[in-house]
Structure formats: structure tokens, C-alpha cells
Amino acid sequence: MTTLPPPPHHGVILFAHGSRDPQWRAPIEAVRQHIARHQPQVLTCCAYLELCEPDLAQATRDLLAQGAASITITPMFLGTGKHAREDLPQLMAALRAQHPQVQFTVQQAIGEDPRMTALMADIACTPAHTSS
């Protein structure tokens, strides 16, 4: 599969639930750092529904301040539960009303992408590297 380069001034927001536990954010931040290393032309940040910051509105403002003209929201959920079905569409309606000049794209929950399904299956069936 050939991946097309993103348009200039494109932003990606990795949107996750959030947690009071600061260690919970590490995997989401690791994805952001991977994007920054491998696709530095993409403006990237994380946003959280609750319990930590930034929220989706602040992350959007941050990307716009960096020059983003279009933004893709990637829900970092394993499935399309209540947050992806109900909360995210409400948040997106507010963002589109506040920023009508911005082209927003919302991807499906990342866990529902067949590539992620295959990767999780591979991980589940591969012996883990453990330190005892």
C-alpha cells in the first residue's frame, strides 16, 4: 500500500480518553514522537477527552497556531464506543463551528483498522520479551 504524503500544513491530533495516572499517557505520546521522527512535516499533538490536558479544543488551537490548515483527528480507542459515537461528534460539531475555515477529518477508532487488528493478533501470538 502506497501512503501519500500529507498536504502542507497538515495536522494530526491523537485523541484519547485520558487518565489521572501520568504513566497512562506514555503510549499515546510515543505514537506522537514516532510521527515527529518519521514524518516531521506533519504537525502532531495529543488531546484527551477528560482527566488530563490538552483537550481537543486546545490541541486544535495549538495546531492552528503552528500553521495547520487541515486537521485529522485519530481516535486512539480500540473500538467505537460511546466516546467515539457520541462525545467525539459533539466535540467536532463545536470545532467546526468555531473554525469553519479548517478542513477536519475524523478517522475511525484506531482499533477498528484492519492493520491494527492484524498487528494486535501478531503481538498476542508472539512470545513477549520479559525480564524476570
Automatic annotation (TrEMBL):
GO molecular function terms noted in the UniProt entry: lyase activity; metal ion binding
Keywords, alphabetical: Lyase, Metal-binding
CDD domains linked to this entry: CbiX_SirB_N
Taxonomy, superkingdom: Bacteria
InterPro entries for this protein: CbiX-like, Sirohydro_Cobaltochel/CbiX
Tagged with keyword Lyase: yes
Entry protein name: Sirohydrochlorin cobaltochelatase
